[in-house]
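user: can you give me the structure for this one chain? tokens are fine.
assistant: on it. calling the predictor now.
[tool input]
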Amino acid sequence: MLKTDEIKKLIQEDYLCGKKRAARVGIKYYEEQHDILDYRVYYFNADGKLVEDKHNANIRIPHSFFTELVEQKVNYLLSGKEPIISSDMPGLHEELLEYFGDEFKSELAELLTFSAQAGWSFMYAAKNKDDRVFFTHTKGLNVIEVDESSSQDGKAYVIYYYDKAVRGKTASYVQVWDARFVYYYEFDEDENLQLEKRDLNPRPHILKYADGDEIVDFGTFGFVPFFRFDNKPGGKGDLGTSLKGLIDDYDLMACGLSNNLIDLSEGYFVIKGLEGAKVEEAVRNIRVKHGIGVPEDGSVDLKTVDIPYEARIAKMEVDRKGIYKHGMGFDSAQTGDGNITNVVIKARYTLLDLKCDKLETRLRKYLGELIEIVLGEINERHEADYQLSDVRIEFDREVLTNEKDNAEIAKTETERKSVLVNTLLNVAAQFPQETISRKLCEALDVDYEEVKDLLPA
């Protein structure tokens, strides 16, 4: 078992590691906490000191491109209405739906969403009171994987550390998972790590209950029940350096334009006859009282300037296109020439499809690990021998379509079938009745075997 000093050291190293710092940036941008929120404007005052300008406008609005790109990818990949995990075997299919229904799909969406932000995330396995395994997402930022080569006793562990409010104070806790048990620790007031005082500590992975809440038996998975999913090879998130830079530039251009419109829409004042702190006081009076007093030889002139509106708008448009290109997303604001056919729509999904194709490949392998655990439980319960090859994993993505195009396609298909049916009826006398009947059923999408007994001889 890991020693407490070893656990504390691993937590300290994990919290400060560069990979976790990069992950926190992705999480911040998903939550619309961009660098623009820390933007400040400074100037040199009359005394030559650099001070923050708190009088001129400093609009700080984050634009949620990254949030949109992440939600877009996850929702598009999971947009199909059919179950992702299914089987052609009726008995197995029904069992799989119990494990991988809507609740699992919701957890899977959370896994993909967080891994896109941070670069990786986890599912962990547990069993409910019906002794059925289920999978729950847990954010990977506070999870540490310790492999056999890294631990002092040569065993694999997962450390999960977290804070929670207890009696109005924040307390820190740690869970250490191995192949059989989970150990619960807490930090005391002197930052010493010690085992929590609870009925079962360590606690087995699986608790079996009677009809009520009474625990009657224990069990274990025989492995550490945490399953890591990497968003990209190496556990990289979707933000990246180039995408972040484009979003930051867009924020700066848009907020700079807002500041220009606020500060320069009425021009600026040239004040003569005042010096030093009196100039700053005069500026405040102009803004608040719309007037100031000046010496007899002084004056106030209003100067107007042309706001660089078109240049900023052009740069923002360049940034916007770059964001969707580097983020491999679908820009719903594109208008083109107004001829939005299904072919055009499909072309605009090209980058998003490519991104989802790569993600789907990794996700299929990941889901295979979870399915193996479920199949083992199903086989044990029913004394069966289902294999992974008996299970189908399908992502049926739904693409937006042009309703007018769809109607025209449906009309064309109906006309084609009508011509085919009329042709078959015209030549019916020259072919056997069964041949004509089969061809008519094919044209009308009817199962010949189901209706052949109802057809005239």
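assistant: here you go. The CA atoms of residues 437 and 455 lie 8 Å apart. The chain has three domains: 4-236+355-393, 240-353, 403-454.
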